[in-house]
Amino acid sequence: MIKTAKYNAIFMVAVSLIMYLFTRPIVSFFTSDASVMYYAILAMRIVSAGYVFYGVGMVMSNAFNGAGDTKTPTYINLFGFWFFQIPLAFFLAKFMGLGPIGVFIAIPVAETAISITSWYLFKKGRWKKIDI
Q: Which residue, 21, 38, 44, 68, could crosslink 132 as a Cys pair with Cβ 3.0–4.6 Å?
């Protein structure tokens, strides 16, 4: 499990670097509109900062599923996305005045929180007691 998370994290670092360093060519493949490119480049660069955590969280979530504990990742995702990421995006965009950048920032922040929560709950080991 730890080895899988490590390899996925390494892979996601590579993906993050590609997405960060080659953002403009990737975006220009899809659009040439300057205003769209501006926000797309911002979004890709900000979101790619959380890919490592996304990769680890994905491994942890699937480990729970593989062990037969489907409730834990369901609750983690429900709270992580619906009750944390969406309100955080709204708060950053509207109340902090960040607009779309606030929405982009909420994505890696939520992914990081979800990954840390998944890691913590996996280490706790309750998933070992699930009967399937």
A: 68
* Tens of pLDDT, residues 25-37: 999 999 999 999 9
Range 32-70 burial, b when 16+ CB lie within 10 A, else e: eeeeebebbbebbebbbbbbbbbbbbbbbbebbeebebe
How crowded is the C-beta side of 126, counted as CA atoms within 13 Å?
Answer: 9
Does this model's pTM top 0.90? Answer: no
Q: Which residues are CB-contacts of 99 (< 8 A; sequence separation ≥ 6)?
A: 93
Task: Give alpha helix (H) positions in the chain.
Answer: 2-21, 23-30, 34-48, 51-66, 71-77, 86-90, 100-124
- Domain assignment of residue 36, given as a range: 2-129
Structural domains counted in the chain: 1
